[in-house]
Amino acid sequence: MKRRPLFVGNWKMHTTVLDACHLAADIAKTCGGLQDRDVLVAPPFTALNQVAHIVAETGILVGAQNVCWEAQGAFTGEISPLMVLDAGGAAVIVGHSERRRIFYEDNVLINKRLRGALAFGLIPILCVGETLAERESGQTFTVVEEQVREGLAGVEAADMADTILAYEPVWAIGTGQTATKEQAQDVHAFIRSLIAEIYEKDIADKVRILYGGSVKPDNIDALMVQKDIDGALVGGAALNAESFGRIIHFQGI
Ligand code: PGA
Predict the structure, then answer these.
(1) According to the 3-state scheme, what is the secondary structure of the chain?
(2) What predicted TM-score, i.e. pTM, was given to this entire model?
(3) pLDDT tens digits for range 63-84
(4) Residue of 22, 96, 105, 146 marked catalytic
(5) Which of 7, 79, 156, 203 is buried deepest, with most CB atoms within 10 A?
């Protein structure tokens, strides 16, 4: 089954508002108005609103890098789904390994964020992935299964149409060491079979599973040939319109 490719640029804690505006404008030039694939950029919160204005009318979507589950209230340091929507965001990354590892977010918290996003109509992008130690000790599938099951706990089948998954092996993020296309495909196929088991095959066939971890212009083509890889979640290479553009315009569709 052919799924519509999706490319997400995760800008992490980079860019001033001005840098973000320039980057968004450059990306809009090369990647706006594409009919056969989706493009989403996730700037820091501080630049989200301005970036949303810049890419409005180009078909490029804007997302946040995290979100709270409450609409408003005493949650110092958090941003609500309504605020993301209000600023022009349509999606949110949840469970990024940097949130898990550096800020101790666990599956229960990530699941709350994901369900909060869905409750307010934001598209959640749930990131999962094993560390190097987990891979080397043969735990990749166990860890990924737990992250998928617990991350999606309580999510209705109907909401899966709006939910995106991203497999990001922690050892591949920002290291220049991409998973091989076979390693990535194996885990993607596993995640898809898990979704079929939790929900049903039809849902699993439709859900988009992105690969993330040192995606670059020179490895995207091979990754995109894989049957269960539906796009990419890009960090470093998304901070440059030319390299992000090349990734989006991968060869071989
Ligand atoms: P990277 O980051 O492309 O710089 O490895 C990916 C991510 O963290 O989403």
Answers:
(1) CCCCCEEEEECCCCCCHHHHHHHHHHHHHHHCCCCCCEEEEECCHHHHHHHHHHHCCCCCEEEECCCCCCCCCCCCCCCCHHHHHHHCCCEEEECCHHHHHHCCCCHHHHHHHHHHHHHCCCEEEEEECCCHHHHHCCCHHHHHHHHHHHHCCCCCHHHHHHCEEEECCHHHCCCCCCCCHHHHHHHHHHHHHHHHHHCCHHHHHHCCEEEECCCCCCCHHHHHHCCCCCEEEECHHHHCHHHHHHHHCCCCC
(2) 0.97
(3) 999 999 999 999 999 999 999 9
(4) 96
(5) 7
